[in-house]
Amino acid sequence: MTISPEAYLDSVLSAPCPEAALLIADALNLRYPGAAIFLYGSGISVSAGENATDILFDFYVIAPDYRTAVPNLVERLAARAVPPNVYYFELETPAGLLRSKYALLSMAAFERLVSKRTFHSYFWARFAQPCRLVRCPQAQKPRMIAAVKTAIATFLRNSQGLVDNPRDWRAVWLAGMNASYKAELRAESSDRAAKLIENYREWPATVAAFALDPSARRTRRADAAWRLRALMGAYLSIIRLLKATATFRGGLDYIAWKVKRHAGVDVAVRPWERKHPFIAAPLVAARYYRLRAEARKAAQS
Prior knowledge:
Helix content: 55-70%
Distance between the termini: 71 Å
CATH class of the largest domain: Alpha Beta
Number of strands: 5
CATH topology of the largest domain: Beta Polymerase, domain 2
Number of helices: 14
Largest sheet: 5 strands, mixed
Radius of gyration: 21 Å
Number of domains: 2
Strand order of the largest sheet: 3-4-2-1-5
Strand content: 5-15%
């Protein structure tokens, strides 16, 4: 029996995900009623025995509209001008403190950003890869599945012109993923895309079967488009980083947690620094280097 693209996407999007991620999604759902919540990234594959308190879960919250989801006018304007707004979110549970970051979009913005109406690959390259729709109002589920299907088609069809055989699904995926990394200034290893394609199992070939354009061919125009996306990505990355200093609530706490986890240095973010992250960031950085130097000196004595 042949399964429809929508049914296949539904089966993957609805697949089980870690209990810790569900707890965070439920808390985010209370904050954003009526939202669809996607889990993506390595948090999807957290094993049963793995400590969820060591994981930073990544979500996309697709809210019904910006006006109700982002009451602050400045933040709302930032969400419209340079999407997405990114926030840090912690949830205290009996098992420990769970950490996450989430990107916020309106449903209308999400549908536009994963379509061919959006030139840069930031959104449609992400949602062409497998994710989980962990919470979603039933009435909105077909709309979210359709948006993911659109993202896949947009990504693959923009990538087909990069390869000599545009019907070779693996070559198209490899070329497209590597091009998207360059378009976001992501320093990925040369074999990163190949490893992900392997980890995605049947997904790349299955979605390619219904999304590839059978009439596509390699073109200079496709190469030029991806070079332009890489150029745009340099500026967009800087703009998003600057914007995040204002909208990434709890960002300093997140950075402090990462530093303590990886370097063993507790920079202890102060209350006033949380309120003024843009001003405080250089001071926190200086404190980190001082504490690290002191720790090294103590270790040598």
